[in-house]
Amino acid sequence: MAWSLQNWLTHSTNQVCHTHPLSHFSCTPFQCCLLADYHWGCVCVLCRSVEGEAVEVQPLLSEESLKESLKKQLEFCFSRENLSKDLYLMSQMDSDQFVPIWTIASMEGVKLLTTDMDLILEVLRASPMVQVDEKGEKVRPNYKRCIIILREVPETTPVEEVEALFKSEKCPQVISVEFAHNNNWYITFQSDTDAQQLKRHYNSHSNWLIQ
User: Fold this and answer.
1) How far apart are CA 127 and CA 121, in angstroms?
2) d(CA 50, CA 38)
3) Which InterPro entries match (predicted)?
């Protein structure tokens, strides 16, 4: 069944830009490619008309608007809020907390905005929330952390055994212990100071990572 583009957008995103009339186009949901700017509440759409020709029915974001949207999306990826839930992203970090930039570029929220690696790198380098390595290949969050990543501990390890590692009198109180991906466990403390204290206490363990 053919939907009007306006109707499909309303049902799909509720982010319709009323500045540009869209109702005179007709398509199925699978014939439309939607690029949404969720920060400004405006969408950019490429759609196939009834005749099958590709028609740009709305202008793309301005360069500055695109950079601002991309900055917000990239900083969100490395925010405390997201990292506390995004176990996949955390599992991709190396021992220095770096993630390959191509990993970030492949995330859906970023791909919706751009696939231009040069632009992504430019925005990352300009953000105070992240740090890009000298070669421009990897990026990591740029703030103190209260989560420790315990590496190379099999998923089959009982939670009680992992918790027992942190019951020393010198160990700060643990808030939570959670298994993630790739034999990584995430140990959350109440503060950055507590995590740093534990890091110093176990500084002989090469598989510790403050995150």
Assistant:
1) 10
2) 28
3) La_dom_prot, La_HTH, RRM_LARP4/4B, WH-like_DNA-bd_sf, WH_DNA-bd_sf
**Which residue ranges make up each domain of the chain?**
3-56, 63-141, 147-210
Q: How far apart are CA 22 and CA 180, in angstroms?
A: 44
Q: Give residue 168's pLDDT.
A: 79
Q: How far apart are CA 72 and CA 113, in angstroms?
A: 11
Please name the residue that has the structure tokens 């099999």. Answer: 154
Domain 63-141, CATH: 1.10.10.10
- How close are the terminal C-alpha atoms of the chain, in Å? 49
pLDDT at 107: 94
SS3 at position 115: coil
**CA angle at 139 for the pair 130 and 121, rounded to the nearest 5°:** 90
Each residue's pLDDT tens digit, 52-93: 454 444 445 788 899 999 999 999 998 877 877 788 898 898
Q: What is the CATH number of domain 147-210?
A: 3.30.70.330
Q: How far apart are CA 43 and CA 188, in angstroms?
A: 39
The per-residue pLDDT for 4 is: 39
Report the share of the chain in percent with pLDDT over 70. 64
Which region holds residue 14: left if phi is over 0, alpha if psi is between -120 and 50, else beta? left
pTM greater than 0.85: no
Helix H or strand E encompassing 36: strand 32-37
